[in-house]
Write a sequence for this structure.
C-alpha cells in the first residue's frame, strides 16, 4: 500500500493521443518529469482497449470515443488520475521534460491552477479569434492579467483540490471549467509556454478541436457567467439607475442618470418647458405692442 507521502508527491501526467505509434515516446518523456510519475494515455481513436497497447512504458491506457476531442480526453484522463498534481499535455509534440517542471513548481507555492500564457492577438497580421474569445472571457471574469491564457491550451496543471472543486467532467468544456475555477476562488497563474522539440505525425491531429466549437463554448461560458452575475457581468454602471426606466411618470433620461425626484423639479421638465414657452410668447407680444 502506498504511503501518504508517496501519494502527495505523485504527479499524474495525462496525454491524449490519436495514434498508438507515439505512445511509447510520449510515455517515456512523461516519466522523466518527476521522481514519482503516473502516466495516463488516452486514445481518442479507440472504442475499446486492444491487447497490444495494454501496457506502454508502465502507463495507464484509457480508451476514448473515436471522435473525442483533446479536452474530452483530458477530462477522461483526470477521472483515472490518482496523483495530487495533474499535468495535462497536448497530443502533438515532444517537450523537454525539464521545461515541463515549471508547471509543477507554482502548485507547491499555494497556486491551484497553472496555465500556459497566451500569445499575441495578431499572428502574421491576422486577428486570432480564439485568443480574442479567451481574452474576453478572462476580462469578464476579472482576470485580465491572464490575457488570452485558457484551459483550452495545454500544457496546464492543477492540484487535486482544484480538480475536485471544478469537477473532472467540466474539463471537457475548458471555458466553462475556467469560469468554475474563478468562481470557486482558485489561485491561478501563468507561465511562459514551452517549445516543442519536435512534432508528431499528422495522424495525431485527430483530437484537435474545431475553431467553431471553441468559439461556441466560450460564448456559452460568457452567457452562463452573465446570467450568474447580472446583465453587465458585474461591471460598474456609473451613476445610472436603470430600474427607474420602468417606473411610469418620471422623465427617464434624466432620472436614470441622476435619480432626481419630481418634487425637486415641481412637475418635471414638461412644466419648465411650458414656463419657458409662456415667457417667450409674452416677449413676442410685448415687441408686437411696441411696434404698433
Amino acid at each position: 500500500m502506498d504511503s501518504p507521502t508517496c501519494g502527495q508527491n505523485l504527479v499524474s501526467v495525462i496525454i491524449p493521443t490519436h495514434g498508438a505509434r507515439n505512445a511509447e515516446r510520449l510515455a517515456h518523456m512523461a516519466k522523466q518529469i518527476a521522481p514519482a510519475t503516473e502516466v495516463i494515455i488516452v486514445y481518442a481513436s479507440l472504442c475499446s482497449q486492444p491487447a497490444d497497447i495494454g501496457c506502454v512504458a508502465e502507463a495507464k491506457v484509457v480508451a476514448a470515443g473515436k471522435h473525442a476531442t483533446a479536452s474530452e480526453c483530458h477530462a477522461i484522463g483526470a477521472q483515472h488520475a490518482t496523483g495530487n498534481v495533474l499535468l495535462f499535455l497536448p497530443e502533438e509534440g515532444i517537450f523537454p521534460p525539464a521545461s515541463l517542471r515549471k508547471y509543477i513548481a507554482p502548485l507547491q507555492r499555494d497556486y491551484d491552477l497553472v496555465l500556459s500564457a497566451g500569445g499575441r492577438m495578431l499572428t502574421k497580421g491576422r486577428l486570432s479569434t480564439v485568443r480574442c474569445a479567451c481574452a474576453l472571457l478572462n476580462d469578464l471574469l476579472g482576470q485580465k492579467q491572464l490575457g488570452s491564457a485558457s484551459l483550452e491550451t495545454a500544457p496546464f496543471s492543477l492540484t487535486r483540490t482544484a480538480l475536485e472543486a471544478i469537477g473532472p467532467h467540466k474539463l471537457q468544456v475548458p471555458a466553462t471549467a475556467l469560469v468554475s475555477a474563478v468562481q470557486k476562488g482558485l489561485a491561478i497563474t501563468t507561465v511562459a509556454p514551452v517549445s516543442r522539440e519536435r512534432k508528431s505525425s499528422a495522424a495525431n491531429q485527430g483530437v484537435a478541436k474545431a475553431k467553431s466549437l471553441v468559439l461556441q463554448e466560450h460564448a456559452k461560458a460568457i452567457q452562463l457567467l452573465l446570467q450568474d452575475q447580472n446583465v453587465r457581468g458585474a461591471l460598474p454602471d456609473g451613476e445610472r439607475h436603470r430600474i427607474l426606466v420602468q417606473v411610469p411618470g418620471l422623465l427617464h433620461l434624466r432620472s436614470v442618470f441622476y435619480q432626481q425626484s419630481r418634487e425637486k423639479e415641481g412637475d418635471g421638465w414638461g412644466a419648465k418647458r411650458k414656463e419657458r414657452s409662456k415667457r417667450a410668447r409674452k416677449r413676442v407680444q410685448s415687441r408686437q405692442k411696441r411696434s404698433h
Notes: The longest helix spans residues 269-291. The longest strand covers residues 11-17. The chain has ten helices and nine strands.
